[in-house]
User: Which sequence fits this backbone?
């Protein structure tokens, strides 16, 4: 993989440094947020219907933050919780948020998470993992699209794959995070291209990935629909395929985007969003949280949000959800092995 070679397989000393830095960051954030959660408990109690904190394990403005703020607005508008607020706990691909949540003594804290956190914990061997917190419910899935610059010589996915097959290192890819790199890896495997021989240029978010495409640094990207599609609408990028089992519904232009499966590549990996509680939550409290989430996602406001963000509902909970998390962890670990990381 041609992220600079040193980044493909960090030396053990560097891995220890990363782990130590992440641990220190978690400790600092936990101390900082301890007062926040104490104030929360003192101001409104710890009943999930009376006082609820929605934890976004990233800075404001990203996908996790958007999810939690939309959920907050839905709960407020429909009077589902007396007091609901969002707490941003950024860092380490969402695993610092896991570390913070895992140490909360009360159940009235819901963190959004998913495949991005699993990718981070596998890639960097973080001390905090998604298995440290209590799964409440999988809510929805987001999809990537494969895009190229508007002036790219590749008019179709077949064109791109043909050029990539002929010169795996000569066609450079980018993406806005670990999940996008996983998508590229699955596409390479489906096309018969060794992922470890490809060129992937990591970007810090969708905006940076778009700039890499527009300035010629990268030739193609698998990126989140919400990030990339506005650039398609503006004419700066063109879309070659949707990474999903089925086409999306909506405007005619969106419905016309073919899936990769339709084009002969069996790639359907999704960027899923789920909610997690502290491990201290009892079975009864998990049930209460599941009921609350179920009421929220059934509202007209939430349904409008799903449509607006091109999300797709994918509910899952209890044992089926726990099995799904383990399957996804194994799948993502295997993809990183294919990358040579």
Assistant:
């Amino acid at each position: 993989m041609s992220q600079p070679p040193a980044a493909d397989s960090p030396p053990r000393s560097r891995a220890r440094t990363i782990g130590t830095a992440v641990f220190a960051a978690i400790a600092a954030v936990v101390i900082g947020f301890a007062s926040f959660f104490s104030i929360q408990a003192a101001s409104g109690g710890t009943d999930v219907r009376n006082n609820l904190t929605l934890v976004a394990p990233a800075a404001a403005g990203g996908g996790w933050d958007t999810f939690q703020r939309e959920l907050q607005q839905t709960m407020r508008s429909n009077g589902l919780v007396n007091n609901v607020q969002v707490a941003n706990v950024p860092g380490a691909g969402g695993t610092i948020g896991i570390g913070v949540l895992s140490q909360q003594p009360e159940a009235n804290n819901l963190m959004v998470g998913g495949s991005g956190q699993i990718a981070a914990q596998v890639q960097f061997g973080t001390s905090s993992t998604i298995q440290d917190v209590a799964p409440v419910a999988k809510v929805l899935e987001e999809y990537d699209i494969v895009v190229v610059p508007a002036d790219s010589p590749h008019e179709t996915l077949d064109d791109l794959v043909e050029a990539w097959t002929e010169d795996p290192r000569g066609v450079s890819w980018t993406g806005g995070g670990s999940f996008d790199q996983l998508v590229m890896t699955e596409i390479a495997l489906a096309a018969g291209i060794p992922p470890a021989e490809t060129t992937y240029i990591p970007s810090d978010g969708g905006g940076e990935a778009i700039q890499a495409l527009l300035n010629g640094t990268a030739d193609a990207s698998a990126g989140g629909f919400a990030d990339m599609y506005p650039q398609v609408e503006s004419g700066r990028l063109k879309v070659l395929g949707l990474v999903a089992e089925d086409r999306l519904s909506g405007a005619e232009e969106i419905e016309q985007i073919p899936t990769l499966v339709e084009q002969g590549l069996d790639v359907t990996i999704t960027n899923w969003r789920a909610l997690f509680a502290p491990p201290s939550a009892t079975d009864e409290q998990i049930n209460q949280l599941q009921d609350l989430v179920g009421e929220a996602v059934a509202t007209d406001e939430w349904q409008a949000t799903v449509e607006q963000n091109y999300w797709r509902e994918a509910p899952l909970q209890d044992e089926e959800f726990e099995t799904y998390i383990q399957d996804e962890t194994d799948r993502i670990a295997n993809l990183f092995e294919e990358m040579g990381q």
Remarks:
- The domain at 144-255 is CATH 3.40.190.10 (D-Maltodextrin-Binding Protein; domain 2).
- The first helix runs from residue 5 to 8.
